[in-house]
C-alpha cells in the first residue's frame, strides 16, 4: 500500500470519520506547507509523552513538562468532593465545564454499555470506577450523578453503573441522580449547549 492510501486508512480509524472525509483529510495535507507538515508530525510524535491520564478521573491532560499524576480538576482543592459525575468520555467534561454550573469531580468511564451487548463483554473501567467510589465513600462522597447521553445505550449504561455500585450506594446512603429533562432525546452531552447542560444539571433527579 502506498503512503497516501495508508494515511487515508489511518484517518478512517478516527472516531466519526468516514472514507470520504478521510480522503479529504489526506488530500488537504498535500496542500500544506513543509513547515506545517513538520509541525504536525512533531506534535503527533510527542503527543503521548506530553499528555498523561489522570489517575483519579482517567481523563487525559497536558502535563506541560511536569510530573503531575492528577488533572487540574482532581487536584483543585476548591472542587466539591461530595459529588462525582460519571461520564462517557473526556469531551463530555469539556461540555459540562463550559456550562459553569458543576463544581464536583468526574470519572470518565471510557465508553457506554450498548443495549445489544451480545458478547456480554465489558471493556469499560468498571474496576477502577468501583475502586474510586469505594475509596471516596470513606471520605465525603454523598452524590453520584450519571451523566450519560439520552439514548438507549446511555440509559443502559446508567442501569449498569447503578448495579455495579449498588453495594456502596446502599451501604453509605449515597444519592444517585440522573441529568434532568432539557437534554433532548438522542442528544449527546458533547454537542449540547451550555444552557441546556446547566438546566439538565439543576433539574437532576
Ligand atoms: Zn482528574
In summary, what is this structure?
The chain is of the alpha/beta class. Helix content is 43%, strand content 14%. Helix 1 (3-12) crosses helix 2.
Characteristic key phrases:
globular; binds zinc ion; two-stranded antiparallel ribbon; 4-stranded parallel beta sheet; single chain; alpha/beta; 205 residues
Number of helices: 8
Strand content: 5-15%
Describe the main β-sheet briefly: 4 strands, parallel
Shape: globular
Overall mean pLDDT stands at 89
Strand order of the largest sheet: 4-3-5-6
Q: What percent of the residues sit in helical stretches (DSSP H or I)?
A: 40-55%
Quick one: how many beta strands? 6
Topology of this protein?
Blueprint lengths: L2 H10 L6 H13 L2 H17 E3 L6 E3 L17 E8 L2 H9 L5 E5 L17 H12 L5 E5 L4 H13 L1 H6 L3 E4 L15 H9 L3
Parallel strand pairs: 3-4, 3-5, 5-6
Antiparallel strand pairs: 1-2
Helix pairs in contact: 1-2
Bound molecules: zinc ion.
Characterize the structure shown.
The chain is α/β, with parallel strands linked by helices and 205 residues long. Helices cover 43% and strands 14% of the residues. The protein contains eight helices and six strands, in the order H-H-H-E-E-E-H-E-H-E-H-H-E-H. It has a four-stranded parallel β-sheet with strand order 4-3-5-6. The chain has a two-stranded antiparallel ribbon with strand order 1-2. Helix 1 (3-12) crosses helix 2 (19-31). Bound molecules: zinc ion. The site of zinc ion (ZN) has 8 residues, from loops.
Amino acid at each position: 500500500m502506498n503512503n497516501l492510501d495508508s494515511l487515508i486508512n489511518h484517518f478512517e480509524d478516527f472516531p466519526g470519520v468516514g472514507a470520504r472525509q478521510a480522503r479529504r483529510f489526506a488530500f488537504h495535507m498535500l496542500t500544506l506547507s513543509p513547515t506545517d507538515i513538520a509541525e504536525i508530525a512533531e506534535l503527533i510524535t510527542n503527543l503521548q509523552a506530553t499528555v498523561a491520564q489522570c489517575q483519579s478521573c482517567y481523563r487525559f491532560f497536558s502535563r506541560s513538562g511536569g510530573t503531575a499524576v492528577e488533572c487540574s480538576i482532581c487536584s483543585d482543592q476548591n472542587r466539591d468532593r461530595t459529588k462525582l459525575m460519571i461520564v462517557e468520555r473526556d469531551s463530555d467534561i469539556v461540555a459540562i465545564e463550559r456550562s459553569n454550573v458543576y463544581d464536583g469531580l468526574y470519572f470518565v468511564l471510557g465508553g457506554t454499555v450498548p443495549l445489544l451487548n451480545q458478547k456480554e463483554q465489558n471493556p469499560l473501567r468498571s474496576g477502577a470506577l468501583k475502586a474510586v467510589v469505594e475509596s471516596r465513600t470513606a471520605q465525603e462522597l454523598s452524590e453520584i450523578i450519571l451523566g450519560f447521553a439520552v439514548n438507549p445505550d446511555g440509559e443502559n449504561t446508567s442501569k449498569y453503573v447503578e448495579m455495579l455500585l449498588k453495594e456502596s450506594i446502599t451501604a453509605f446512603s449515597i444519592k444517585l441522580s440522573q441529568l434532568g429533562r432539557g437534554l433532548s432525546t438522542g442528544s449527546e452531552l458533547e454537542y449540547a449547549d451550555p444552557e441546556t447542560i446547566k438546566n439538565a444539571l439543576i433539574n437532576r433527579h
